[in-house]
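Hey L., structure's done. Input below.
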Amino acid sequence: MTSSWPADHNWNIFASSLLIEVCARFGSDTFFVSPGYRDAPFIAALTLNPKVQVVSCWDERAAAFQALGWAKGKGKPAVLICTSGTAGANYLPAIIEARVDHIPLLVITADRPFELVFASAQQVIDQRDFFGRFVKKSLDFPAPSPSMNTKAWLSYARMLLEAATEDRAGPVHINLPFHAPLDPVAQKDSPSAEQIHSARQALDAMSFTRPVPRRADWPKELLADFAQDVKKAKRGLLLIGRLSDEEADKTAIRQLRSNLGWPVFADVGSGLKFETEGEIPDLTIPASRALLERYKPDCVIHVGKRLVTRYFDDAVASWADASYWVLSDEEQVQDPYHLPQRRQHRADWAQILAILPTLNRDTTWSNRFINLGRQLNKVKSPSFNFRDVAEIVRASTNDHVFLGNSTAIRAFDSWCFSPGAGFQVVANRGVSGIEGLLSTTIGLSLATEKVWTLIVGDIAMLHDLNAIISLAQSRAKVIVVLVNNVGGRIFETLPVQKYPWVKDPLISTPHAFNFAGISAMAGLDYLRCQSQSDFESVFHDRQRLGSSCIIECSQDAEADLNWVRALALQEYHDE
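Output:
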């Protein structure tokens, strides 16, 4: 087999090699490929292109989440390729997450030719507009043939990659039908030397540039209104939601936090949580909720995306007289109560910091929140629970951590109170699903070439069992911290807990599984912990080794509920 570009065995492989080369030159050089026969021309073209990396994924759902993780890590589109029929349908959960959370993906679905779509052929469905409104753009390419317009193919491929990355990023889709032959066999009407030369010339003439970020430019009137609301505020509140990876944005928000001097709540996804001692504990804790009600802010500034906790939304809705500014890049209304006083705009931090007035600081209330945090930090865990895991991970590392949803992310966001270094985490918070979490972490590790730590619950891990096999066969390195409290125990801390006949078993989904067997099947190291001290020792050992493993933390079904009850008993006392 000789590497060559473009591969010219036949029109199918020639067309595939053109699309692959456009992706590689754009910077999307990693392809997540699932098996099948209809996508064989792509597989042949990938094998012949020395510039690209190919990740083999037999399960399309896991493949899509691995691609999602890779795109998060690289900041450019990962490429997914699959065969025809229902294969592409398995991509949908990850595509939805990418669309809502603005992660760039290029999805390529191979298809059967037009004449077979409604002719009872095998492994064929109507794949037009396959992913609907969950992709930014979707194009049905014609089947490759001697009459194909090479320049148009190249132009459209670049257009889709640019669409995936520009402004609010997201997934895009190519549906490409192939006639036989699907194999790398030469044909009499294969591309001529002149056609190959023309394709090379067209590609060499194309420019591949990163999109220019769209920045806000506030009019003077808007800046004046913002400055006035800040200046007249007597009891301001700063909420910091999930932020971009841009360090300049985080630096600007640190400056905003310092200039305002207001009480602050920072989401764990912001990268700024735990940096200051005066952070407000989550309002799921009654003492924190009562103290904030006493404070009753008259001006609220929310920067970044929505918080993990919803209780600040509830609180803001109760302060009818408070001015409310949401500074976010989100295209959706970032306010579930649709408050009429909300003003939501993209931020230009240079403009905003330049016009902020000098404020007279009163630290009385910040000191009260500091005292509350200290008091909550002294509450003892009744038994080994998710918060114990979170504190040990926090103390051991501050980056390359992926947090699962449900209780996993809330243990860090709501139950940890001591200040420390900024905690840089990644999570799938677009739609906050519990599937594909290990797969996403595998993709992040492949993109960054770093060891990642995944914190995940048992039910979420049961949704991604195939990824355990993938991890064992991957270059990725992931330390999986799997908290097994035998069911969906977040529901024990919600109002439905009062109605066990509703909660059990269809909501809480109790089980008696452990993950030793599948770890052994995959050939992954497996370690089991039943106490905080066990976990601390094992986790530190595995961090030193830096190899993939599963650490299963076995916990009682009511451990988190008992911890929440212990926090609820803590009353605030002025010190």
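The two ends are 76 Å apart (CA to CA). The mean pLDDT is 93.

-- N.
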